Amino acid sequence: MFSFKKKNQNQVVSDDLDMTRIPKHVAIIMDGNGRWAQKRHLPRVAGHKEGMNTVKKITMVASDLGIKVLTLYAFSTENWKRPEDEVNYLMDLPAAFFDSFVPDLIKNNIRVEVMGYTDQLPKSTQKAVFDAMEQTKTNTGMVLNFALNYGSRAEIVTGMQELANQVKRGELEPAQIDEATISQAMMTAPLGEYADPELLIRTSGEQRISNFLLWQIAYSEFVFVDQHWPEFDVQVFKSALKTFQNRDRRFGGLTK
Ligand code: FPP
Prior knowledge:
Layout: H1 4-16, E1 25-29, H2 33-39, H3 44-65, E2 69-76, H4 84-107, E3 111-115, H5 123-136, E4 143-150, H6 152-168, H7 179-184, E5 199-202, E6 221-224, H8 234-246
Parallel strand pairs: 1-2, 1-5, 2-4, 3-4, 5-6
Helix pairs in contact: 1-8, 2-3, 3-4, 4-5
The structure holds farnesyl diphosphate.
């Protein structure tokens, strides 16, 4: 239960948000788990465990706010460079997460999706994710989209190879390739009209993109927050959404 004070504070921030301008697709680079743990003299994986709890909380808040797609960068194609123990821990997290959380996802009409090179994940990780997708496939509310073994340059390479093959087979003329064709070749294509995030949040004070959604963020607003992912809470989230709502999005044009 929230204390009275906290509930009250949440209410104030929530009232402050324009519910007609909630971003449809929010993507988050969940950074700072390791530093959060190290600051507390805990092993790095304790930060990932706490980070998993943050994922649960933020998923519920995002769904309640009416966000259509929440994309979370859970494991990058570069994260394999980490110590084996840490990689193994991260690979076991989806099973732990979905084992305890799928009933809540179903209750809240949330559908699980995944994007990334899932065939390179351990079989048990693949099973955890695919089972969760199967169990939530008829849900029509928010899409909880995990980027797992995802890298944007690799995604673009794979997409371009696919288009080149279509040209080679005579199914596509080079002159027909346009922005829509390329969007269709990206891993976000199943998200349809919500493929491109309107808002990208990165936690823990780092201000870089780290090979995330390079094609899709052409017109996204970026919000960088100082909190490490395990301490990212409803207040920080709503304040990032408020920052988004205060931005003047011109898409290269002029303000009306
Ligand atoms: C970045 O922090 C975080 C990750 C690489 C892993 C993200 C995973 C979670 C938040 C757990 C939830 C996942 C699922 C599938 C439910 P970091 O380790 O790079 O932190 P640092 O920069 O402080 O070292």
